[in-house]
Amino acid sequence: MEPIGDLERELEELRETYKSGKTKEASWRRSQLKSLLSLLEEREEDIFQALHQDIGKNHVESYRDEVGILIKSVNYALDCLKQWMSGKNVKLPMVTFPTRAELVPEPLGIVLIISSWNFPFGLSLEPLIGAIAAGNVVVLKPSELAPASSSVLATTLHSYLDNKAVKVIQGGPSVGDQLLQQKWDKIFFTGSPRVARIVMTAAAKHLTPVTLELGGKCPAVVDALSSSWDREMAIKRILGGKFGACAGQACIGIDYILTEKKFATTLIEEMKVLIKKMFGENPRESHSVARIINKHHFLSLKSLLDDPMVKASVVYGGSLDEDHLFIEPTILLDPPLEAAIMNEEIFGPLLPIISLEKIEESVEFIKSRPRGLSVYAFTKNEKLMRRLISETSSGSLIFNDAIIQYAADTVPFGGVGESGFGRYHGKFSFDAFTHEKAVVRRHFLIEFWFRFPPWNDYKMQLFKSAYRYNYLSVVLITLGLKKSSQCSKTH
């Protein structure tokens, strides 16, 4: 088992920092967010190099999906922090008059963030922004599968942030196990359902609340769009949302396509043309397709294609380079539905297309499968849109684009069912690490005397009127202007 130095000493320092109350101050939160902004701007090149070393990402893709999106998120948090930290007044029923109530946000305390390897900076720092904005102290465990990125996170966060309040602990599964044995006030996990079950089991010991950001198979419904412009835009967004986002190794990436049989050939031919425009005749030399994270995952993807029936369904691509951990953008038409490629999350640059007689059949197809993180639909058919909204369930539903929801601060990002639970981004990140405390203030001046024993039918009638919001009846009964109706005696 990998040792974690003096873990108890590190945790005790976090506890003392939290007890001091400084993380609850707006000035501390704001200063830490500004320091994080400085880190992203000043260490941009280090981040680019780490991402290229770990997974072969192009620096433009790295800026789009990680550095730039994080800068946007920090600035949004800075703009909204005062509003987020403010309590909000809530209405109370008249029966409590004269009483005031508000919801006061308070930090949860000591939180653990366990992030993933595919977007090692985004999936580490996006929840960290929320945790800091909410006033928590944090332990971040980045993924050991992206060692260069993990190292940059450890060194830069130590240098830029309050290292008595934010700590990075590196290591493999045994380090994760040791961390999970500790008592936390919140655990935020991004990864696979298999590891999520381990996290949940550990959290149950201390009744620790958790957020699980997982994945699943995200379908894309592609209607037979009549306009060539619409088709080109749709296909660009599909290809970008599949092959152009970490080579398909993204939890919200398109996993497979559902389309009509009569449109499938047209779709595939136009996809071939645009793949060459986006990634070149030789995608391996284009520097626009990331590499597979490691040999183990490469072989897992290869095994999906090794099934003879699946291999026979390949209509484009299919070449693999194990030495360079590269898989060409690959399209498959109607692989067997019982094959592993149609039942496991692919997490790579393999894109099955399933053809249906009618596009409306896509609704039942999606409903028959586990709920994913996202459903995508490229269509102008309003009836189909309404059915997808009302009849399918997923973390998000996006029409006529792919993965764009990840960049939004004002909509929640999270799953449902096997794709996880809890949500974050923007205010939702703040809420994920916050307890909304109910604060009620009451005066001594007026009392609703009938709420105290001894009990009688007269008080019962007053309660019945009050709980039905019939306050006029309460006044009339109290003044003797209305007789209380008979009711069962209360003993």
TrEMBL record:
GO cellular component, one term: cytoplasm
InterPro entries: Ald_DH/histidinol_DH, Ald_DH_C, Ald_DH_N, Aldehyde_DH_dom, Aldehyde_DH_NAD(P)
Domain Aldehyde dehydrogenase: 12-439
Keyword NAD among record annotations: yes
Top-rank lineage group of the source organism: Eukaryota
Gene Ontology biological process terms in this record: aldehyde metabolic process; response to abscisic acid
Assigned keywords, A-Z: NAD, Oxidoreductase
Protein family according to the UniProt entry: Belongs to the aldehyde dehydrogenase family.
Protein name: Aldehyde dehydrogenase
Taxonomic source organism: Actinidia chinensis var. chinensis (Chinese soft-hair kiwi)
High-level lineage: Eukaryota, Viridiplantae, Streptophyta, Embryophyta, Tracheophyta
